[in-house]
Structure formats: C-alpha cells, structure tokens
Amino acid sequence: MMTELFKREFNALWHSPWQLALISYIPLIGVLALWWLFSAGLPRQLPVAVVDVDNSQISRMLTRQLAANAVIAPQSYANEAQAVEAMRQTQVYAMVVLPYQLKKDLLTGQQPTIDIRYNSQFLLVGKLLSSQLQLSLAEGLTQIGQQRLLLNGANKATVDVSLSPITNQTTALFNRNNNYVGFLVPPILIALWQLLSMLVFINSLNQELVLYQNRYYFPKQIWALIATKILFYSPIMLLHGGFILLWLYHYLGLPAAGALVDLTLAQLAMLMALWLMVLVIFTGMRDSARSVSFCTALFAPAFAFMGITFPVNDMPLLAQWWRLIMPSSHYIDSHVSVISYGVKLPHVLGQISGYWGFLLLLPFIVFFANKAKDVPKTDLTSSDVNQEVS
User: Where mainly located (predicted)?
Assistant: First the structure.
C-alpha cells in the first residue's frame, strides 16, 4: 500500500514542473542570492546629508571626519529643507546639521547642538549610522577640546583624562567583526526555507482535492496520503536545511560553537510543526488558492518575528501571539543557542519539547478532514468526478 502511494507521489512530482523547481533549484538559487546580497559583510559608503550652516574651519573639519568613516558618504546640501526632502525620497539615510556659529560656541566654551537625524524605517542602517555619526563627530570634537585645553595652559598629560575620564569599550560577544553575514543571513535563510517548505507541502496536498458539484472533498485514503507526503517531502526539505548549515558554517566558515547535527533535529521538529500548521489551514479551507494565499501571508513575515533585529518583548501583543504560531521562531532559539553558546543535545531536546503546543492542532485536523472526507459518489475517482462536473 505505502509503496504504491510513494510511486504515485513520485509520479505526481515528476509531472509537475513547478513542484520539481520548488524542491530542486529554486531553494539553491534563493540561498545563494540572499547570501550574495549580504556578502560584503558590512554596509559601506551610506549617503548622509550634511548641512553646513556655519561654513567654518571647524565645521569643514567635522565633515572631513565624517568622510573618513568607511560607513559614511557625506553629501553637502544648501539648507535643511533640501536635506529633509532627500531623506523622504530615500536619497540619503541620515542628515547632520552643523549649526551657525558652531566655531564660536566651541571656542568660547558654549554647548552648541549638532542635529543628527536618521531614517528609522531602515532599522539596521539607521542604528548603524546613528552610532557611526556620533562616533565620528565625537572624535572630531575631542580634537577641538584638546586644542582648547592646551591653549588655556592645561598640562598635556592630563588633557585626555580631563576630556574622557571614563573610557567605554563595546565588544560583540558572538560577532566580533560586526559582520552582517553571520548576524542576518542565517535567520533570513531559515525564513526562506520555511516558506519554500510550506509551498512544497501545500501544493502536494492541493493535488488531492476532489471537485464535485462546486465543492471540494477529500478521498477516502486521505490519512494514508498525508502520511505519505510527510514521509516523502520531509527528507527532501531536510536536505535543503542541511545545505544551509553546511554552506554557512563549513564552506563560509562562520563561527559555530556547537554541533550542527543537533540543529538538524531542531529542523526536523520545526518541519513537523510546519506540516501541522499547513494541514490545519488546508483541511479547514479546502481551496487551493485560498490555502496558498493564507499560508503565504502567515509565514512570509517570519524573519521579522524571530527577534533577531527587534526585541521580542518590545513587540505588540498581537505580534507576540503571531510569533508563537511561527515554527521558525521556535527553531531560531535553538539555532542561536547552538551556534553562539555551544549548548549540548539535552538542552536542544528541552527546547524542542516546546513544540508540544502544535500537537493541539491534531484534533482540528481530524475534525476538518473527516468532515470532508466522503465524496457523495464514492465509487468515482478524482478524475471521474471532475469529468462529470465538466
């Protein structure tokens, strides 16, 4: 029985170009393309508007200080209104306004205000520019402060202590070079892998819908068909998940503190939870177009809910609930634990046990499937029913 069903599934796959593409070259192209987009590691030469109202020697020195930073590419604007408009049109990602009489205020001991603005819609770019702009301007202003103290007769040995009595050093524990490949690419690829796995499974399930009198039904052997599809497609998608791990942590050589085989178990648990989510939607809707659309809308924003670029606790309550039903959000906790902290298998198994909530979907799947399992004319095959309707 199962052998025949596997042959049937293989034949259906072989005669479906789209399904073949989803399990073969589309995941590979997607993985390589996303890696290539972030392969530079760090953003460089990000355009920043500079409005120099003071037009003094000090303001020009600060502009040169900004240009010396590899992340910043300063662009001069005549006034603040033009710079704001350039930000709105995303021609620049940030702006710096050097105020009038900046030189005079600095030399006379006043505290002028340098206006720094950045586009927070570009979350990572905005944070990066905010820190780099402040760092570059602080270095330039420190030089001015040193000159002023020396001119006032301060001892050269005490100048640095006077300007910076406390020195801060920030060290990224698991990303020492602040490389965006190791930080962003793994969760992005996991989100892509989840989306492709969903499409593969839902497309396979949609092939089993039987149309009769403008309603869709399931064949009698729907449970055997579902089991066959799970056993057939799970190893295929796990191969793609394993390729992602090998590509990132062996070929590219990104640091990994733990064993990748532990992550394979976490990926398997994630797939099983994903299959349950897809089955609930498929059995509940019984419509190919609606099922694909709903699943895509549900899983497309997976990366945003992983908590990598935005703290989970700061998300709105609805977003936190949405995150709980996203299998990739549960997997990424295991991924970070293994890659960054090097946790062992018992800890990973404890995290995998957190998927138990997805088992609560089984009664709904059984209810929906049994409700639509019997075609009114059970002696007709799927093709016969479709022919009769046509």
Answer: membrane
